[in-house]
Amino acid sequence: MDNGCIFCQIVAGTAPAAKVFEDDQTLAFLDINPINPGHCLVIPKTHHENLFTMDRHTYQAVASTTLLIAQAIQQSLQPAGMNIFQANGEEAGQTVFHLHNHILPRLENDNLRVEVHGMQTAKPDQLLSIAATIQTAVQS
Q1: Which tens digit of pLDDT belongs to each residue from 29-81?
Q2: Which of 47, 48, 98, 100 is catalytic?
Q3: 132 contacts 124 by C-beta, under 8 angstroms
Q4: What gap in Å lies between CA 57 and CA 62, rounded to an integer?
Q5: Is there a contact between 77 and 38 (Cβ–Cβ < 8 Å)?
């Protein structure tokens, strides 16, 4: 636990949160600054700054809870769509340095744009080179 971390304080019960689910490894609660109604955060109960400091078992628990909550939001609030994302590192937009998945229900005409495509198509040789570099890291 990191006493200066607001999410650790929520886990400890020393900071308030509108909890929607809790088990022995994870906690899901409504975002205090929601983009749309039902905007939830899913966190591990143990402090991990980001994805790169986690073990697979803990991340699998976060992913499982994310799926559960996303399905519950879809059933109960019936949004027009949904985004699920996380930011890892300041350059990626992370502002609370305790890993968290955002579950963001989307409304028709909410005017939020999420772009995930580059402006140019990559060259095949560049893709193969990058893929080989990542494959080497996976195998190590």
Answers
A1: 999 999 999 999 999 999 999 999 999 999 999 999 999 999 999 999 999 99
A2: 100
A3: no
A4: 9
A5: yes
Cβ 43 vs Cβ 62: under 8 Å: yes
The domain covering 6-139 belongs, at the CATH homologous superfamily level, to HIT-like (3.30.428.10)
**117 belongs to the catalytic site:** no
Supply the pTM of this predicted model: 0.91
Give residue limits of the domains in the chain. 6-139
C-alpha radius of gyration, the chain, whole number = 17
Q: What percent of the chain has pLDDT over 70?
A: 99
Q: Which of 2, 16, 32, 28 is nearest to 98 (CA)?
A: 2
Q: How far apart are CA 74 and CA 32, in angstroms?
A: 20
